[in-house]
């Protein structure tokens, strides 16, 4: 059901998130995390329950897996775009889960100026460049988990590439410049999202598609229930697979039309060398019989949109 390719996206039934994460971790065969400083980026953009934000079980499964892999330190870093970050993390249970699993929490809004690294605007669509948290730039490994959502504020989709917007400063702590206002008002918003990922590494990304939003988003929308979890070491491949999954259920006009690899965020990420260059370079792998038929349809959608 799959041909040789440059990057794999693994798909597994989501009935048991802990089992699914363990199986995905084993299949991906990540480099050892033993003794490493690991930064984790989940999806806590707003104070809304899953699938708007990371499910508590998913966060606990990932933090536990990283801890058991021997990480020297684990830091959950977040900046919420639609709420007060510290309160969102508390209300969504993330702060408590981090404490139970031995992880620290970094509220990025509270970082001092030296906690940010300035990315210059050279060859980017950002007028002044942007600031990215050093936590993610300097970690030995970055792990992220995202949701399956559309984005009605110009992003079109909110998947693994979009999730990294939360590693960027909302405002410059020196002069107050509003990076997020620039992002959300720019006709290049989706390309700017891809550009962030050029400067934020990611060892593995896990997409919790137990449920998702096929329209609306990022905090509310039409709910769908694919009941699968996807994972890859390649964010472009993962997002392309996520878009195919949204198309399977029927989504917004912006998501449904055209080539998946022609969509702004995917195309710009390809230009920047962040992931695979085409659907032909993407191998979908079903890890159980429950997800096999869905994977076959996702493969068909990817091939038809090539």
TrEMBL record:
Record domain DUF362: where: 38-243
Organism for this UniProt entry: Methanoculleus methanifontis
Lineage, uppermost ranks: Archaea, Methanobacteriati, Methanobacteriota, Stenosarchaea group, Methanomicrobia
Protein name, per record: DUF362 domain-containing protein
Domain of life per record: Archaea
């Amino acid at each position: 059901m799959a041909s040789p390719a440059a990057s794999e996206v693994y798909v597994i039934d989501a009935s048991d998130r802990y089992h699914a994460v363990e199986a995905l971790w084993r299949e991906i065969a990540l480099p050892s995390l033993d003794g490493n400083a690991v930064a984790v980026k989940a999806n806590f953009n707003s104070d809304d329950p899953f699938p708007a934000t990371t499910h508590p079980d998913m966060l606990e499964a990932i933090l536990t897996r990283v801890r058991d892999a021997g990480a020297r330190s684990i830091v959950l870093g977040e900046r919420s775009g639609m709420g007060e970050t510290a309160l969102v993390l508390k209300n969504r249970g993330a702060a408590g889960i981090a404490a139970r699993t031995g992880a620290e929490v970094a509220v990025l809004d509270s970082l001092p100026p030296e906690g940010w690294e300035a990315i210059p605007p050279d060859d980017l669509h950002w007028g002044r460049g942007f600031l990215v948290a050093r936590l993610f730039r300097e970690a030995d490994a970055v792990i992220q988990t995202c949701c399956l959502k559309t984005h009605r504020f110009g992003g079109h989709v909110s998947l693994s590439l979009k999730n990294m917007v939360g590693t960027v400063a909302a405002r410059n702590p020196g002069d107050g410049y509003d990076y997020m206002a620039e992002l959300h008002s720019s006709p290049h918003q989706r390309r700017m999202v891809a550009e962030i990922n050029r400067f934020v590494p990611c060892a593995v990304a896990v997409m919790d598609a137990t449920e998702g939003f096929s329209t609306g988003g990022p905090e509310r929308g039409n709910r769908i229930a694919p009941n699968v979890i996807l994972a890859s070491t390649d964010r472009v491949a993962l997002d392309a697979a996520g878009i195919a999954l949204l198309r399977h259920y029927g989504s917004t006009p912006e998501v449904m039309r055209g080539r998946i690899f022609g969509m702004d965020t995917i195309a710009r990420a390809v230009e920047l060398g962040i992931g695979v260059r085409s659907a032909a370079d993407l191998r979908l792998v079903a890890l159980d019989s429950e997800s096999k038929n869905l994977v076959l349809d996702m493969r068909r959608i990817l091939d038809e949109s090539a």
